[in-house]
Every structure is written in structure tokens, then in C-alpha cells.
Amino acid sequence: MADITHRGNPVHTSGNLPAVGSRAPDFRLTDADLKDVSLADFKGKKKLLNIFPSIDTPTCALSTRKFNEYAAQHANAVIIMVSADLPFAQKRFCTAENTNNVKTLSMMRDRNFARDYGMLLLDGLYQGVTARAIVVIDENDKVIYTELVPEIRQEPNYDAALATLK
Questions:
Q1: pLDDT, averaged across the chain
Q2: Of 60, 82, 105, 143, which residue is the catalytic one?
Q3: Terminus-to-terminus CA distance in the chain, angstroms?
């Protein structure tokens, strides 16, 4: 369990992010077309998972825009936004914000992703969704970078995460 904060108040996660060097846990998430997607669907590609509570919050929206800018210029990696939002909300946001270079995936059908990646919030205002974190996975599904953002309202370290994709 990790201890983080939301507006300075302590909140707890269900576990810890996968260890650097470990095999990334498989997942089943739902894409914008309501199709189930797993880690195997991105086989052979580097993957950056931007995990956050909801695309409709300011920091989550900002991180989606920033990673979209990077993805537009770097086709060698898949940049994936993971949240508890319904695919309809994710698609609405991406259309309105023209953030079509990132892939949005929803935990709509399965919260195991949040548990397996140790990011399910157990208490606080956002209980039941995820903490803010970054996980970078290489072409062989090995975890090569993780960051658990200590305060949910803070942005992740974009430079450190993106440097692992080069």
C-alpha cells in the first residue's frame, strides 16, 4: 500500500506500482469502440501508461494534452490514458480537445487493472478510482519506469517518463 495525498489529506492505494524490471501485469480495459484491449494488443511496442482518476479533472486533462503533443511526433511508442471514465466521456474529451494521438482506455468493465497495478484508491474523495501514476513498459512487456505522483493534483514528471521512450 502506498500513502499519497489529495489536497493534503492522506489517501491510500491498494498496493504498489509494478517494480522496474518486472513483467508488466496483463490487463483488460475497454477502448473508445467498446472493445476489450489487453497488453498483448500492443505487442512489440513501447507503452506509456498515464494512469489517473478522471479525464474530466484539470490535471488529468492537462496530462492528456501534454502526452498527446509528444505522441504526435513519436510513432515508436503507444501513449495510453487509463481512467475510470466511460469510453464515451473519454471520446468526447479527445474529440473536443483534438487529442487523437493518444489512446484512451477505460476500467469500465474491470477494476482489476487498478488492483494489479496497485493504484486503486481505498479511501478519500476518489475512492474506487486510481491514483495518478506513470508506468512505461518496453517492447518485451518489461516495466522500465514508474512514478506514483505523491499528491493527486500534481502533474507527473513528463521529462523523466518520456526519456525512457527514446
A1: 93
A2: 60
A3: 31
State the greatest distance between any 2 C-alpha atoms of the chain, in Å, as a whole number: 40
Spatial distance between the Cα atoms of 145 and 157, rounded to a whole number of angstroms:
11
**Is the pTM here over 0.85, yes or no?**
yes
In order of 83, 86, 142, the CA distances from 56 in angstroms are 10, 11, 30
Look at residues 83, 70, 147 and name the one whose alpha carbon lies nearest to residue 113: 83
* DSSP structure class, residue 138: -
**In terms of CATH architecture, what is 3-163?**
3-Layer(aba) Sandwich (3.40)
> What residue ranges do the domains of the chain occupy?
3-163
What's the number of CA atoms in the CB half-sphere (13 Å) around residue 137?
25
146 close to 163: Cβ distance less than 8 angstroms? no
pLDDT digits (tens, 9 = 90+) for 21-71: 999 999 999 999 999 999 999 999 999 999 999 998 888 888 899 999 888
**94 is annotated as an active-site residue:** no
